[in-house]
Amino acid sequence: MLIPISLRSPKGQTRVQIEDDATLGELVALIQTTTELGEFTLKYGYPLKSLDISPSLRGNSIKDLKLRGEAIIVAPVETAPPVPAQPAPEPFKPKGIEPDETSLEWAKRGGYIVLRVMPDDNSCMFTALGGAIGLENPSRILRNQVAEYILNHPDKYNKAILGDDPQRYTTRMRQMDTWGGAIELSILSDIYNIEISSIDVKTLRIDRFGEGKSNRVIILYSGIHYDRIAFCMDLSYPVEVDVTRWPIEDEEVLDRARQLAQRLQNLHYYTDTTDFVIKCEICNWIGQGTREAAKHEKETGHSRFGEMQITD
């Protein structure tokens, strides 16, 4: 009988199959061929635990390891450095935060809770969530799914809930420069059957969309921007080997993510949306706070905004 296994390595995520009576050595050889790595460590399960692949154990059967359906993280050792990540768009950097301030060591689990900063392109929420659930170029996919869900559930998502006619609302949401928020997070939680825990940097409040699901992802909200929370074993590893989903029973990871949010709060990694000055990037309208921005969007259909930096 074949055992399906998901591998996450610097080359990305792939699925393999191996006979259930195979040896550990045969599994290691399969991973070497699939990932093109010579030396690596393996971790799997929730919370992550190491899979001992010492040469003396490679003659053992893998049957008792219960790997069916597991996701195994393949991390290169120092003699085989990871493949460099592709250059990313210019990230969002409010208040001049430094990269080394966006991680928190988690020695108990042998790695770090990290903030994966999303590009400042008006699709940050979709990018943050899409990456957490394993989608490539997720913005257009998730926008279309949200729009279809709204139109297919007119009793639940009507004008009173959306603040606009559903057809107009979904037309705007399909546009790549329209911000997403709580409504979209709630819908995507239903579509992907996953709890989305959103941590507000300013207040450290945790908003849970889709409570009662079996797994969760964690994102961070800093006023006008969303980023992704992830776990990695080494800060030099590419984001493709991040862990971004946890069982709902794992409250410890949520506590650790909140600790990282508190560090970012102390660094003022947030925008106070009650009084910040905002500018429409389409018509150069200037207003104050998200309420005025929402009113301007409703009146004009313009949805591209940016925070204005006021200097003395």
Automatic annotation (TrEMBL):
Q: Name one GO cellular component term.
A: nucleus
Q: Which SUPFAM superfamilies match?
A: Cysteine proteinases
Q: Where in the cell is it found?
A: Cytoplasm
A family per Pfam: OTU1_UBXL
Origin: domain of life? Eukaryota
**GO BP, one example?**
ERAD pathway
OTU domain span: 113-232
MF GO annotations: cysteine-type deubiquitinase activity; zinc ion binding
Q: What is its EC number?
A: 3.4.19.12
Chemical reaction(s) catalysed: Thiol-dependent hydrolysis of ester, thioester, amide, peptide and isopeptide bonds formed by the C-terminal Gly of ubiquitin (a 76-residue protein attached to proteins as an intracellular targeting signal)
Predominant location category: cytoplasm
Keyword vocabulary terms for this entry? Cytoplasm, Hydrolase, Metal-binding, Protease, Thiol protease, Ubl conjugation pathway, Zinc, Zinc-finger
Function, as annotated: Hydrolase that can remove conjugated ubiquitin from proteins and may therefore play an important regulatory role at the level of protein turnover by preventing degradation.
Would you tell me the protein name for this molecule? Ubiquitin thioesterase OTU
